[in-house]
Design goal:
single chain; 613 residues; alpha+beta; Heat Shock Protein 90; Ribosomal Protein S5, domain 2; Ribosomal Protein S8, Chain: A, domain 1; 3 domains; 5-stranded mixed beta sheet; 20 helices; 26 strands; elongated
């Protein structure tokens, strides 16, 4: 009896502070959000000794009177909500009444505030007690000073990163919250040096320029889309501007900075195959919805939220990104190559045509022996659009050559289904038996023939794999494969999935399986290559959703089927390749995100030769 006791108020406050205040950036976040809720148009953040000695946040908001100023440091006192119903309609950044009490519990706090210009109050707290009070001259607004953070919690103080990291965390938060409020002027000073500043001109692109620089800002695309319940808008970068981390994807919901795995993935899915592996866009997305559709009462730091109808939101985000990319030319300019080259594994001194097919996710070895090999399947009648002009013994038909003549005469590329995405260009030649050279009116183009062929193959293969009615035919001579025991178990479990691809396979005893039918979409000269890649993909089992598996498979098969570098091709073949590329949905990158086309302007070339000084 008597073992369960009420916690001391100070201990309870320290526990709460442990949830809300983790580091210097946590203090800055809470104080800046209070300033925004107070309708400030100017917010200044200053760190002394990287915030470990003092954090000062000043604003020109509505300020507080003396009663409110004394109450704001008490647990669960807030001006933001009044009853439980308000929790389902939160339109402010703060609402819990935990931030200032938590900060006060782990620091020495001073509040200076005024509701009118010229006269204000100053309150100083130590060990959560008011120790000094006075009247001061002060412009309208609030200034809060947080000294000696974590002085009474040594373990938390010891866990703080080094001084530069703490400044970096604060800077990351302030730049992202500035994206949400371009109408607020932010100033961030650390150790006497101005780190970041915006001017409150209500221009989000100007804020992007302040954070990332002018070159990035001019390569951002504005997007906007809405549904019945949500609207999304913002900026996202062209494929020439990427980063190696998802940290540059900023998600804002009704003005609140949040983290959300599904929305981040929806943005990346919107890029599809336009991004290289391990590369991510710079995106600032603002989501607006009724407050009742988003639950911000999930985490003490309010950084995570839950949505009603989240699947609809994810689809809206993906479509918004995809549409803006579809509607803009993404041809990479020569001067942008350095952005793509940063930590780009594809631009190292390696065999690029083999690199695309590597897969680091493979955990299971693939070591089967083919007992029966067929060199030729029964003849298949390919439609004109199915014909691969670079496939052996397949000649392009006359109608295709007519299209090439149009290209040769300098007439715009034609396609019945798609608007022209490539500019008008004339064939010039081939460089290093790897790159096609073409000329436009004011630009010169280099086209990677392997990347171009990969893009064409990928879209054709993916479209066929996604078709619910895949046709198949029976092989005259079945193909036999012997798997390892573990591989055989996985193949057995995937027999129905293989049928959906037009492949009929059955057990022939032990770990040997026989393929009796294949889909007509598989080129007859690459049956073995395609089957091996299909089995390999199924055995790896890294993609669970059907569309993800088909996408991964299409990428692998597209690479295997594509023409390679260091292969000479005739002028007619090169022109056909460009016409087929023009008909794709995304002619700018290969399925792995590498650029297909690089543009050199006439102006740049003339500068090289000093024709322009």
């Amino acid at each position: 009896m008597g073992r369960i006791l009420k916690l001391d108020t100070k201990v309870a406050n320290l526990i709460a502070a442990g949830e809300v205040i983790e580091r210097v950036a946590s203090v800055v976040k809470e104080l800046v959000e209070n300033s925004i809720d107070a309708l400030a148009t100017n917010i200044k953040v200053e760190l002394v000794e990287s915030g470990l000695k003092e954090i000062i946040v000043s604003d020109n908001g509505i300020g507080m009177d003396v009663i409110d100023a004394k109450c704001c440091v008490l647990p669960h006192y807030t001006s933001k909500i009044k009853n439980s119903d308000d929790l389902f309609n939160i339109n402010t950044l703060g609402f819990r009444g935990e931030a200032l009490p938590s900060i006060c519990a782990v620091s020495n706090l001073t509040i200076k505030t005024s509701t009118v210009d010229g006269k204000g109050i100053s309150l100083r707290f130590k060990d959560e007690k008011l120790v000094a009070e006075g009247t001061i001259s002060l412009p309208k607004g609030t200034t809060i000073s947080v000294k000696d953070l974590f002085y009474n919690t040594p373990a938390r103080l010891a866990q703080l990163s080094n001084a530069n990291n703490e400044v970096s965390f604060v800077s990351d938060y302030l730049t992202k919250i500035a994206f949400a409020y371009p109408d607020i002027a932010f100033l961030f000073i650390a150790n006497g040096k101005t780190i970041f500043q915006t001017y409150g001109n209500d221009d989000q692109l100007e804020v992007i320029s302040s954070v990332y620089g002018f070159d990035v800002a001019r390569n951002m695309l504005a997007f906007a889309k809405e549904s019945n319940y949500f609207s999304v808008e913002g900026y996202t970068s062209k494929i020439s501007v990427t980063r190696s981390s998802k940290q540059h994807i900023t998600i804002l919901v009704n003005g609140r900075l949040i983290r959300n795995y599904n929305i981040t993935n929806a943005i990346i899915k919107g890029y599809g195959t336009r991004l290289m592996v391990g590369k991510y866009p710079i995106t600032i997305i603002q989501i607006t919805c009724d407050a009742g559709l988003v639950d911000v009462n999930v985490h003490p730091a309010k950084a995570e939220v839950r949505f009603s109808m989240e699947e609809e939101l994810d689809e809206l985000v993906k479509d918004a990104i995809s549409e803006i990319l579809d509607n803009n030319s993404l041809i990479v300019e020569q001067k942008e190559i350095n952005d793509l080259a940063d930590s780009d594994p594809f631009l190292e001194e390696i065999d690029i045509d083999e690199q695309d097919n590597d897969d680091e996710d493979s955990d299971i070895s693939f070591d089967f022996d083919k007992e029966i090999v067929v060199s030729e399947a029964p003849s298949i009648i390919f439609s004109e659009e199915d014909a691969d002009p670079f496939e052996e013994n397949i000649e392009p038909s006359a109608p295709v050559y007519e299209e090439l003549k149009l290209f040769s005469d300098g007439i715009a590329l034609s396609s019945e289904d798609n608007d022209n995405k490539l500019p008008l260009m004339n064939y010039v030649g081939q460089l290093f038996e790897t790159y096609i050279l073409a000329q436009g009116e004011e630009n010169f183009y280099l086209i990677d023939q392997h990347a171009a062929a990969e893009r064409i193959n990928y879209e054709q293969i993916y479209d066929k794999l996604s078709n619910d009615k895949i046709l198949s035919y029976e092989l005259l001579v079945p193909i036999s494969y012997t798997f390892t025991p573990s591989e055989a178990l996985m193949i057995e479990a995937k027999i129905e999935e293989l049928k959906e691809l037009g492949i009929e396979i059955e057990n022939f005893g032990g770990t040997t399986y026989v393929v009796r039918s294949i889909g007509t979409w598989i080129p007859k000269s690459k049956i073995n290559d395609y089957l091996e890649e299909i089995f390999n993909s199924l055995i790896r089992g890294t993609k669970t959703k059907k569309e993800e598996f088909l996408d991964s498979l299409a990428k692998s098969l597209a690479c295997k089927a594509a023409i390679k570098g260091n292969e000479y091709h005739s002028e007619e073949e090169a022109r056909m390749l460009l016409n087929l590329l023009n008909k794709t949905k995304n002619p700018y990158t290969c399925p792995h995100g590498r650029p297909v086309i690089v543009k050199f302007t006439k102006y740049e070339i003339e500068k090289w030769f000093k024709r322009i000084v």
